[in-house]
Amino acid sequence: MVALAVDLAEELRELKRERNAVILAHNYQRPELQDVADFVGDSLGLSYAAQKTDADVILFCGVHFMAETAKIINPAKRVILPDLEAGCSLSESCPPARLKAFLEKNAAKNYYVIAYINCSAGVKALSDVICTSGNAEKVVRAAPQDRQLLFVPDQNLGAWVMERTGRKMDLWQGNCYVHVEFTARSISKIREEYPDAVVVAHPECTYAVRMLADEVCSTEKMVSYCKNSPAHEFIIVTEAGMLHRLKKEIPDKIFIAGPTDNCFCGECRYMKMNTLEKAHRALLNMEPEITLPEEIRRRAERPILRMLELSA
Ligand code: 13P
Ligand code: SF4
User: Fold this and answer.
1) Which end of the chain has the least Cβ crowding within 10 Å, N or C?
2) Is 1 a residue whose pLDDT tops 60?
């Protein structure tokens, strides 16, 4: 079984060379996909990697909105996603038609719309600027002072940025089904078990959980934070795939997956839809491929480029 996986990974690397492809993987991907990727990172790092690549093909091991973002900024490249069904509950909580209707109904507010990158191209096309968990604070601080702000679609990340910047925003009531499973009870309990451990949480967690954390940050920042911290043990409150990268890059420290109150394992079912087999098949057949109407792509590109310039 292990030998088969190694062979498939080797075949995928070979195929990658033949196709002049680059493999980008999010921190939540299965270990074997992270291990075969050219770049592993958070949404921000992946956006920059997609912008910089000179490969002809991007095999994106992540969820749909991430691959779509890569396509928006790389219209001439072919962007392949191992499983087209790899969506995101947060993105789904804000359909473009509902946001459009909301903006029309509230036209008098002349909202400046800040969209967390976890949204569809249709939502990005309706936004003024995009942000990720890694640069949300910077993006919000740079927003025009004379405009009312609307933050979509994650209410928890939006509330966290409000706390950090003191800037008032109206928040779309969306959330990530994985991160809201962590509760104050489940985190307090594990803290009692590991009293010396430092708690690191993603800003998509609820206020009650963020309050218990020693550090709240993007998945990429989790790596540098844990590397530089004098602590030896860490409770990681985010999707469980994150532990692979932490253990691999910081082998001398101990990482404990933040538990939930039920048997839910803290895995994102969408992120886990991608497998080594599907990635190999996708690059072999050059499908499923991400495509989108040029009009939407063009309108969605502007706020993404604004973000990339802002946080460079
Ligand atoms: P990061 O950009 O921090 O990796 O977050 C992406 C994500 O989907 C969190 O659930
Ligand atoms: Fe979306 Fe949550 Fe999965 Fe991230 S972990 S991709 S926010 S459903």
Assistant:
1) N
2) no
Assess whether the previous peptide bond of 75 is cis (omega < 30° from 0).
no
Q: Which atom of ligand 1 is nearest to the CA of 218?
A: 3
CB 201 within 8 A of CB 176: no
β-pair partners for 233: 254
Cα(first)–Cα(last) distance of the chain, in Å? 43
Does the beta carbon of 235 sit less than 6 angstroms from any atom of ligand 2? Answer: no
Helices (H), 119-264: 121-125, 136-141, 155-165, 184-193, 207-212, 219-228, 242-249
pLDDT of 4 reads 59
User: Phi, psi (5° rounding) for residue 237?
Assistant: -100, 80
Q: Whose CA is nearest to atom 2 of ligand 2?
A: 176
Calculate how far, in angstroms, residue 127's C-alpha sits from the geometric centre of ligand 2.
20
Q: β-strands 149-152, 112-116: how paired?
A: parallel
Instruction: Confirm or reject: Cβ of 175 under 6 Å from ligand 2.
Output: no
Q: How far is the CA of 42 from the centre of ligand 1 (A)?
A: 6
Q: Of the residues 152, 177, 206, 219, which should be mutated to test ligand 2's pocket, given the most ligand atoms within 8 Å of the CB?
A: 177
pLDDT for 172-220, tens place per residue?
Answer: 999 999 999 999 999 999 999 999 999 999 999 999 999 999 999 999 9
Q: Whose CA is nearest to atom 1 of ligand 1?
A: 42
- Ligand 2 pocket residue status of 86, Cβ below 6 Å: no
pLDDT tens for 110-158 read 999 999 999 999 999 999 999 999 999 999 999 999 999 999 999 999 9
| Nearest residue (CA) to ligand 2, atom 6 | 88
* Mean pLDDT confidence for 55-65: 98
**pTM exceeding the 0.85 threshold for the entire prediction:** yes
Average pLDDT over residues 12-29: 97
